[in-house]
Amino acid sequence: MLGSMMDRPLLVSSLIEHAARNHGEREIVSRSVEGPIHRYSYAALARRAKQLAHALDRHLGIAPGDRVATLAWNGYRHLELYYGVSGMGAVLHTMNPRLFPDQLAYILNHAADTCLFLDLTFVPLAEALAPSLDTVKAYVIMTDAAHMPATTLPGALCYETLLAGQPDTRPWPPLDERTASSMCYTSGTTGHPKGVVYQNRSTVLHAYAACSVDALAISCRDSILPVVPMFHVNAWGIPYAAAMTGAKLVLPGPKLDGASLHELMEAERVTMSAGVPTVWLGVLGHMRESGERFSTLERVVCGGSAVPRAMIEAFEVDHGVHMLHAWGMTEMSPLGTVCAFKPGMAELPAAERFAIQEKQGRAVCGVELKITDDAGRALAHDGKTFGNLWARGPWVCQAYYKDEGGEAFDDGWFNTGDVATIDAQGYMQVVDRAKDLIKSGGEWISSIEIENLAVGHPAVREACVVAVKHPKWDERPLLLVVPAAGRTIDKPQMLAYLAGRVPNWWLPDEVLVVPELPHTGTGKLIKSQLRAQYRDYILPTA
Ligand code: AMP
After folding, report:
1. In terms of DSSP bridges, do strands 223-226 and 180-185 run parallel, antiparallel, or are they unpaired?
2. Where are the domains of the chain?
3. Which of 22, 284, 424, 533 is in the most buried spot, having the most CB atoms within 10 Å?
4. Which fold does the domain 12-27+38-202 belong to in CATH?
């Protein structure tokens, strides 16, 4: 027997319509690429998204299903593309400008994008890419006529000129809820990036989950500053979750340094922010140097890489800000787990609380997780046994675009490539990326765990552990450290700090102090590059 409820499709357009109807006056504040702070409301966003949709189909010939690419920071025009493109049934392809140019050309051609919208910052980049692009027919620079640059981009159009005079009314089409709404490519460190295509349905379900109290607890009373870029997994879904609740959105544009972020947080009374650990490193550094305080910030969502305990502690102890550790992936829209407390945990002594917060957290309802050994057998959820982490759920992808990379999918589950433990209370902790684990004498060493301890040393800014070949032990850990500004660190100091904090046989065989480490476009360490570079390093113990 079927139920008799209305079969209304879950559509991205319904989010902006809801926000315009119920929170029409709520603000969206952006630091523009041109410089000034721009502010308007959800009602204005909804109108401009409709103007954009008219421009897309009337002027640019965009049809449902066409891919529209962006190279843009977090800002209001990018948000208009989020709603205008997906609302009309086309597919928003947000591109990470920090990828290598040949990767960008590859993904633009692979997605067969017909149109590229770009911020002023990225004009030189797009000019360099243009000759290699097979399918892009129009370039739209996201600025007004007064700021249009001289450019070699063929037939470059001005965003504001395009929108001017377009009607700001238009019914959004009643799409099939499985219609693609947006797509992102994984920032593959090996091989070509792979495409993940989100649906209207998965995006709306993900937004409901993100807002829920034991996830990001987003409400209309929040003022949210997503530092996580709108080109990286839809800024973790915050642009949709904010519209769903009517939360104020504060978009930082290109200025992502600690001082600029703090200034914007204070000016706009930000209650919640979200970003990768590297961003918070910058913010905490600024706070330490300037002695400034947060007057409204309550919580910070951090993920993308493991959050070191020192960072959880610094936010809590020095600033009274709660660190919400989360884990996810491009393939998962991205939310998989959030480390919200169960009853009684908030009252635990600080050290025990921080130990819980170091875990990536519990699956948000909708996501199922399991850990298995290499033969696919399920492993115990005892917080100690670690294995390959698999996920499934309505916002987890079931195949890559054009069915590439099929080996990651098996029997309705997605192999995340992470190795993790799950404890009896359901808290998952990432031990490592499967390919980053170090196998020493048949036993595994977690590179993440050593790295997170190493950055707890006040003289260390960043740390990376990679496996190096060893004649006796097969592999041994090599630790690379970047010193904090104005500080020095050496091998004996580092090893003395780690001794007693990790099992003795985990202590790195070598510690090298380096000026910097390579990062992917999303701020993660490019360990594959470092592994290749140091694979044959002759260790003093070899
Ligand atoms: P991406 O698709 O670029 O967002 O990368 C996803 C990968 O980032 C995951 O598979 C993890 O390896 C890593 N990751 C994301 N969040 C965390 C976290 N909180 N702790 C450790 N690793 C994380």
Report:
1. unpaired
2. 12-27+38-202, 367-434, 437-533
3. 284
4. Rossmann fold (3.40.50)
Fold of 367-434: Luciferase; domain 3 (2.30.38)
Residue nearest to atom 4 of ligand 1 (CA): 329
Question: What confidence tens digit (pLDDT) does each residue in 216-261 have?
Answer: 999 999 999 999 999 999 999 999 999 999 999 999 999 999 999 9
Asked if the model's pLDDT at residue 271 lies above 90, the reply is: yes
pTM of the predicted protein model: 0.94
Question: How many alpha carbons fall within 13 Å on the CB side of residue 49?
Answer: 31
**Catalytic positions:** 186, 331, 439, 444
The reply to whether domains 367-434 and 437-533 share a CATH topology is: no
What are the structure tokens assigned to 536, written together?
Answer: 């044959």
Pairing of β 438-440 and β 443-445 = antiparallel
Q: What percent of the chain has pLDDT over 90?
A: 92
Cα 73 to middle of ligand 1, angstroms? 21
Beta carbons of 389 and 369 less than 8 angstroms apart: yes
Give mean pLDDT, residues 201-213.
98
Of 430, 432, 464, which is best to mutate to test ligand 1, by the most ligand atoms within 8 angstroms of its C-beta?
Answer: 430
The burial of 7, by beta-carbon neighbours within 10 Å (0-12 exposed, 13-18 middle, 19 or more buried), is given as exposed
- Nearest residue CA, atom 23 of ligand 1? 305
The domain 437-533 having CATH identifier 3.20.20.70: the answer here is no
